[in-house]
Amino acid sequence: MEHLKRIKRELAYKGTLINIYKDTILIDNDRETTYDFIEHHGASAIIPIDKDGNIIMVRQYRNAIDDYTLEIPAGSLNQGEDNMTCAMRECEEETGYKPLKAEHLIDVHTTVAFCNEMIKIYYSDDIVPSKQNLDDGEFINVERHSLDELISMIYSGKITDAKTVAGLLALKHKLFYK
Fold this sequence. Notes:
Elements lengths: L3 E11 L3 E10 L3 E10 L2 E6 L6 E8 L4 E5 L2 E3 L6 H13 L1 E3 L3 E7 L8 E7 L2 E3 L10 E6 L1 H9 L6 H15 L2
Parallel strand pairs: 4-10
Antiparallel strand pairs: 1-2, 2-3, 4-7, 5-6, 5-12, 8-11, 9-10
Helix pairs in contact: 2-3
């Protein structure tokens, strides 16, 4: 097994949600290679479950893939915010439902090959109607689906978002083995 050591990190781009770096890596104290690295400051997601057992999902346009996706509500941490608070805030902002409590479900590194983004995923079956409060430039349609319907969408390729796939499958496992 080769020994790898980062010997240099150069900031290539500083953004509001991410920073992009060029890393120089020393391999076996012998040769160098470079990697692109995207630094993300953390995010949270939540699976809101209504009183009928349906999951409240958000459908939104994602520029990176130039398509609409069906996802669990999620967003980046605000400065000084803990992950559970972030998940509950994002749920209310995106869906118009406020979780009164939430439970941790799973943590997911979304793209380990080039990014350190970690999304902590929660779920809540204790939600109350509130008011949707979308960010500027955010256009979201709210949908309700059964867990079984969403699992079918995963296996048919209609849901491909990593946090959503991981979260829904983890929830199915948790409920099945409760």
